[in-house]
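Record 1 of the preview.
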Amino acid sequence: MPGSLFADPETRPQLDESLYPIQSEKDLELLRFLQKHIGIQDEEELKQHVLRVQAKAYNFYGPKVLKLPGYRDALDILRKKPDAVYLEMGCCFGTDLRKAVADGWPVGNVIGSDLQKGFWDCGHELFNSSSETFPAAFIQGDVFDSSLIQPASPVYSGSEQQNSRPKDLRALTSLTPLQGHVSAIHASSFFHLFKEDGQLEAARQLASLLSPESGSVIFGSHVGQVTKGRRESLMHKQNYYMFCHSPESWKSEVWDGPVFEKGNVEVKATLRDVERQNFWDKESGDTVTIQLLVWSVKRL
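->
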């Protein structure tokens, strides 16, 4: 992948404090989550702390899993299998991973992965934690790199698993030993970073990690549209495009057949309209409608 657009101060928009994720009473759950896990109760002090770390990394959002039906499936797995493994792909600050732990997932059974460990380190700074006080596993790597995930077909039965589940996730330097052992995988704002063929390849990589047990789930959300194809990004001034799947193509051209053997998974995908400020033209006050593809892929 090319370097991030936001890495260049000349092209990235200025950080807008009005986009602080807590704006009204509807954000009360997020406020309480941050107060509890950051340890700052005063709302203004909390806001300034979040903005300071946000400016450093130019990236922070509240937990995305709160609005994802697939997350409820993941929590159902936890209730039935307390030792289940949860993976956050493209975890950034690890906010969603922390939400899973807050909801009962044992910290020793969760693992995050992202291209840059710097995001994970910023997560510790944001939440006033350390690898000792929040000992979740993290592995830096590229989903397309065989050193992170060795290409392999999905596992369909326990007899196909090549190795037993690793006992200490923090000792891992690769996700490959977890192939066939992960019960829940969350990947939001992830797939739309890649072209069409890249999205299919990334799906195959994650599928190889999923446990063959019924109910195991991969879920998330990212930008989609009614008809699959290329769309101009909000970053139109950079002539940047992203490839977007439709709910139907996400099911039939990625997961049910191409990645998993047809009929072995239940794929749910819907579009959700989200209004967002056009951050490239903030002075106009215009908003743009983004269609989020909200989805889950569950083993039958």
